[in-house]
Amino acid sequence: MSFGSVFATTTPISVGPYHYVPTEWICILFLVLYSISTVLHLGQAVKYRLWWMIPTATFAGILEILGWSARLWSSRNPKLLTPYEIQIVGTIIAPTPLVAANFIILGRVITQIGPHADTIVFCCFDIVCLIVQAVGGASAAHAANTKTSAAMGANIMLGGIAAQLFAIVVYVALAVETLLRLQHNRPFRYVEQRHISEKGPRVVSKNLRLMLCGMAFCTLCIFIRSVYRTVELADGWDGQVITTERYFDWLDGGMVTLAIYTLNFFYPGILVKKDNPLTHASQQSIDEESSSTKT
Description:
Blueprint: H1 4-7, H2 24-48, H3 54-76, H4 81-93, H5 95-113, H6 119-146, H7 151-183, E1 202-204, H8 206-235, H9 245-265, H10 268-271, E2 278-280, H11 281-294
Antiparallel strand pairs: 1-2
């Protein structure tokens, strides 16, 4: 085993359903990384009582562990269909609960700094995408097992991923619009805010800004991964994209790893509080002046 399998530009050897042999040390590396993040997410969910992070981010980690365990199995038995089928379903649907976590967090952030976000609608749409991808993965796996055409399963998975990609774009667009309205002090509707004066621009708190930065990076990683999987499935089961291991390692495994760890480091239980996240620029300056006068 060498790093050459990651950076090599040669055509992969046609071995089994992958058309290559999954690199063992890469499978072990991702298994360890996902296991650490999943345990951390479970512990953080219990500590901060964010129970919805268990069926979302934690469950996403479990599915990734399942998928990469199957790839590790394939690295030692590359011609077996069972691990190949498991990794298809596992790695395809694993980021979907993570997307649901993003929707919930973004919904809470937007609700604090703007109008009510339709988080339930987006999460329900995400669940539908999850079901569609699972059905497509099962169909493709069955086709691979019976040696029939897997085109229908691939098309179903492609539709699920494309729909999920569309939902991410729409949700991010709504978040950006809310932030722009906040920046220019043009809300959808005026609501009385306690502890906020009526003059001067509103400023988002430091913790909420950190959460927004983390969410932006996490969403970008998932977006890149979704584009890759869309191109991969559209290219076909024997296409150049799906038969090149390094594409999968970097654009699926790498991107989802960055996304899931981002939610570990920028954890909503720490950064998204129930208290008022908005401050007022003029009020801040008054407070600073008064404190400097006292000193």
